[in-house]
Amino acid sequence: MRILFPEPHDGTWSFTEMDARRPVPGEHEVLIRLHAASLHPPAGSLNSQLLTAVAGRITDPGPAATRFRPGDEVFGLILNRTGGSYAEYALARETELALKPRELCYEAAALTAAAGLAAWQTLAAARVSSRDRVLVHDGTGATGSFAVQLAKLRGATVITTISSDADLDAAWGLGADQAINSSGQDFAAILGQSIDVVIDTTGGRVLDSSFAVLASGGRLVSTAGLPDPARAAGLGIQAAQILPTADAFQLSELARLIAARKLMAPPGPVFPLSAEGLRSAYELQAGGKAGSNIAITIPQQEPGFQ
Question: Domains along the chain?
Answer without folding.
Answer: 2-100+268-297 (3.90.180.10), 117-241 (3.90.180.10)
